[in-house]
Amino acid sequence: MPRSFLVKKYFTNKKPNYSELEGQHGPRFAVVPERFPPAELPTEHGSVVPSFPGLVWDMGALPLSFAPVSPTTPSAPLDLSSPFSSSSGSSSSSGDEDEGRTSDPPSPDPTERFQCAHCGKSCSSPTALSRHQLSHCGRAETSVIAPAAITTAATTVSPSGRSSFHCKHCPKEYTSLGALKMHIRSHTLPCVCTTCGKAFSRPWLLRGHIRTHTGERPFSCPHCNRAFADRSNLRAHLQTHSEVKKYQCGTCSRTFSRMSLLHKHTVSGGCLSTQ
DNA sequence: CTGGGGACGGGGCCC
DNA sequence: AGGGCCCCGTCCCCA
Question: What is the DSSP letter of A45?
Answer without folding.
Answer: G
